[in-house]
């Protein structure tokens, strides 16, 4: 017997593709958190903006919540559908729609994978510079929903800096065209930036106009071994002062251990406690000499114990794998993840406090650190021991996250740097935002989603 609500949906959008098989519901109803049992009503896969609007209007008519779904690579439970919601997957809306050579913009549907965006930009001799390890599976709509950053924020900034315009289907099914690709536009509120990082709670991004830029100059990659945590910011300062940095990423010996076990090549004979992989512009003898000068200066000060510089694109890729392969290497351990940020100037004090906090709180857990030091973003992964149950593990970790949130508040940081709040961090939002700010957020949602059907329960409870 079919569900009359779904019959009504297909009547409103006859060409809409629906999935209701249990395997599909499980697949589309979760993200990478794996902490909630997916239980959506169905999965809708629209192919047009009009079908998205029809779905949202149907949802309002029947009081059905809608969970927007991109690549579902999120780590905060933002794409989880566990309470009979309709998952609205944009994976069929995955095409490049327009390229404007004069404006240097690329207009794409929101379901287009990030890697496909990169490839489309390269065909025109340009680049879309936002990049991270999940490029092959994450979607541009999901990147916009969380203002994703990644490995090159130090050079190019977050997703926000590269969005020239958006089309949004609101919580009532209206279509808003935001900014229209303008560089200068002082005609009132910029609703485009309100939508970016809203985690699908204000509506569904269906189309984006992306700014493109020139390809980066030739670069080299260097892997550095550090003797202690304390010298990390000294090394960053030395390299930033001499070089045009494209990326500056740090990880621990535990992170390297897991990546090597996952198949990567060992970079040094000796084991060191901390590592940095940095990419920087070269192209002439002066820049190459500056890179070696930075390295030698760090060696003389005792800030760096060893290092290797890439001699080919293949070697550069091998060095990057040591950093980019961490998340995949840890996946089987069901890690509890913290994704936090502070101002770069606050990093030394925050790092010292947090390292002491986690060392005391997790004496028997394997804690894996890595992060984007150049933009103040740390990823802290606590691995679940085999002899600890899932529920007990989460309870222990959340007790420590409360302490971490308090430390972030003291240092004026954020509990979510680039993965969003979702379900995982909802209880800690007040460590980052004031009560007055949260009240304003609730008011904005009420205007764009008056019935509270767009990704409810994410970010905050309505």
From TrEMBL:
This is FAD-binding oxidoreductase. Belongs to the FAD-binding oxidoreductase/transferase type 4 family. Its cofactor is FAD. Keywords: FAD, Flavoprotein, Oxidoreductase. Coiled coil: none annotated. Pfam families: FAD-oxidase_C (PF02913), FAD_binding_4 (PF01565). Residues 36-215 form the FAD-binding PCMH-type domain. It comes from Pseudoxanthomonas putridarboris.
């Amino acid at each position: 017997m079919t569900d009359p609500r779904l019959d009504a949906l297909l009547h409103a959008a006859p060409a809409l593709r629906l999935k209701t098989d249990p395997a599909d519901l499980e697949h589309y109803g979760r993200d990478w958190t794996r902490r909630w049992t997916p239980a959506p009503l169905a999965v809708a896969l629209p192919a047009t903006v009009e079908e998205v609007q029809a779905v949202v209007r149907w949802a309002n008519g029947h009081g059905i919540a809608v969970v927007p779904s991109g690549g579902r690579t999120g780590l905060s439970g933002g794409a989880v559908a566990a309470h009979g919601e309709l998952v609205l997957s944009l994976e069929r809306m995955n095409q490049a729609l327009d390229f404007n050579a004069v404006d240097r913009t690329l207009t794409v549907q929101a379901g287009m994978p990030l890697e496909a965006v990169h490839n489309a930009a390269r065909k025109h001799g340009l680049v879309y510079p936002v990049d991270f390890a999940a490029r092959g599976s994450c979607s541009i709509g999901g990147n916009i929903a969380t203002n994703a950053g990644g490995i090159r924020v130090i050079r190019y900034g977050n997703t926000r800096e590269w969005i020239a315009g958006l089309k949004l289907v609101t919580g009532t099914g209206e279509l808003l065209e935001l900014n229209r690709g303008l560089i200068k536009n002082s005609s009132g509120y910029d609703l485009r930036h309100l939508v970016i990082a809203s985690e699908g709670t204000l509506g569904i991004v269906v189309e984006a106009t992306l700014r493109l830029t020139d390809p980066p100059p030739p670069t080299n990659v260097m892997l550095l071994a550090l003797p202690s945590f304390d010298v990390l910011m000294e090394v960053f300062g030395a390299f930033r002062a001499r070089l045009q940095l494209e990326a500056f990423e740090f990880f621990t010996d535990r992170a390297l251990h897991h990546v090597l076990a996952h198949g990567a090549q060992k970079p040094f004979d000796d084991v060191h406690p901390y590592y940095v992989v940095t990419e920087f512009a070269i192209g002439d003898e002066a820049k190459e000499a500056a890179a070696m000068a930075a390295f030698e200066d760090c060696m003389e000060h005792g800030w760096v114990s060893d290092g290797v510089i890439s001699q080919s694109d293949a070697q550069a890729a091998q060095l990057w794998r040591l950093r980019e392969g961490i998340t995949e290497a840890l996946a089987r351990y069901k890690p509890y993840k913290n994704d936090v940020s502070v101002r770069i100037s606050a990093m030394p004090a925050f790092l010292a406090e947090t390292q002491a906090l986690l060392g005391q709180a997790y004496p028997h857990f394997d804690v894996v650190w890595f992060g984007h030091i150049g933009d103040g973003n740390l990823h802290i992964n606590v691995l679940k021991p085999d002899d600890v149950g899932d529920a007990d593990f989460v309870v222990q970790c959340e007790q420590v996250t409360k302490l971490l949130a308090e430390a972030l508040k003291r240092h004026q940081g954020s509990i979510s740097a680039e993965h969003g709040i979702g379900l995982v961090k909802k209880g800690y939002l007040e460590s980052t935002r004031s009560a007055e700010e949260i009240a304003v957020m609730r008011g904005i949602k009420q205007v764009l989603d008056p019935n509270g059907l767009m990704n409810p329960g994410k970010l905050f409870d309505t």
